[in-house]
Amino acid sequence: MSPSDRLGAGRYITARAIPDRTVSTPHELTTADGATVSGVLRTVPGARTVVSLMHPRQDFTHHVLVPELLARGAAVWTQGTRSVNNDINLLHEQAVLDMAAGQAFLRDAGFDHVVTLGHSGGGTLAALYHQQAALPPDERIAHTPAGRPVDLPGAELPAPDAVVFMAPHPGQGALLQRLIDPSVTDESDPMSVDPALDPYSAANGFAPAPRSSTYTGEFIQRYRAAQRARIARIDAHARQLAAETTAARRRFKRSADAADRRRSLAPRIITVYRTDADPRGVDQSLDPNERPYGSLLGSRPDLINYGLTGFGRLSTPQAWLSTWSATATNADFLRCAPGVTAPALLVELTGDQASFPADTTAMLSSLGSRDLTHRRVRGLHFGGPIAPGEPTGSALAADAIGEWLTHRFPLAV
């Protein structure tokens, strides 16, 4: 098996070395609601502009753009949420509070300009943060979709000076709705299947790798409707479980009964099988761009779909509704975008496997920024090259970002 045939091939890009003059310092921050988050600040002599990289679920400490930005004279702040690399209870509303702690830290550190940079799902988190920071406190989100109080109205949300989006997708929930396999007939059985909706059945148009599959328009229409229906069923289940937890919490407040307290604390975990099944991964005629055969997670989605790796695999009901439900989440790029009014750069990767040309068009149309720049560079979603021997997408994106920053903010020489 060649390296390019591995199921997760292309997800991790080797970064160039950090410049020798870089000073790196770790920091631990306390959020407005008392959580602890951490980040790493890297500076170069003379840096007055800092770029903040953050993702709701992933650790960006060693993101491929870190050395690229430092080499161009910007300081770089990489921060995690309280749910980094363990998103079973990821609430995007809390992630906004986590991001706020980092933004306040950077203002206090004395930088003249703070620029947020959202790659992939970090783009939607950045859009949500910018939207909430621009609102009067009494208009901000006060409860998660499951009804849990969150004190965004009472929190300090420093407004960044600009935002960069690199390969942003429409949000975790919108992404999952595209990827979820609607042929699952029993949520407790990962092998259950409705043959009429099976995306990896030859009878429905699937062809084995690396040949492109061919699905009919009628199949795609039924398939997308069935995906929405499966999400709706999981939504209903999540709301029921969340309501049971809330009811137990309220009973405990009245009764002080230890049994009610235990019921309010007992986790209800939602398991979602088979979430790598967007037909576009294997039928390249659908929403065409320069992407290779395969999905965001690898070259064999017909196998990955049945494996452990996948979006939204395990979550609490509260996290499902806040993050993974396309209909319930507040973290939806297109809904947040009108509230993003700071100068913005959107870097589109032409071989993106998660965000397609129509998505980019919709995002650009929705963003509220009057100073809005769009750049297209050749590369894959995670920043890899489309073809062996080519420059990486991340290097080309870094050139576009560096040029855009240079024209707006002071960078160290």
Our count of helices gives: 11
Number of domains: 2
Annotation, overall tally of beta strands: 10
Strand content: 5-15%
- By helix and strand content, what is the structural category? alpha/beta
List low-confidence stretches: 1-5
The helical percent reads 25-40%
- Secondary-structure element string: EEEHEHEHEHHHEHEHHEHEH
Termini separation comes to: 46 Å
Main sheet summary: 8 strands, mixed
| CATH architecture annotation name of the largest domain | 3-Layer(aba) Sandwich
Spatial order of strands in the largest sheet: 1-2-4-3-5-6-9-10
CATH superfamily of the largest domain: Alpha/Beta hydrolase fold, catalytic domain
Shape label: globular
CATH class category label of the largest domain: Alpha Beta
The fold-level CATH name of the largest domain is: Rossmann fold
Which value, in Å, is the CA radius of gyration? 22 Å
Average pLDDT metric: 95
Protein described:
With 413 residues, the chain is α/β, with parallel strands linked by helices. It folds into two domains: 247 residues, Rossmann fold (3-Layer(aba) Sandwich); 141 residues, no CATH class. Helix content is 32%, strand content 15%. The chain is built from eleven helices and ten strands. The strands form two sheets. The protein has an eight-stranded mixed β-sheet with strand order 1-2-4-3-5-6-9-10, with helices on both faces. The termini are far apart. The N terminus is likely disordered.
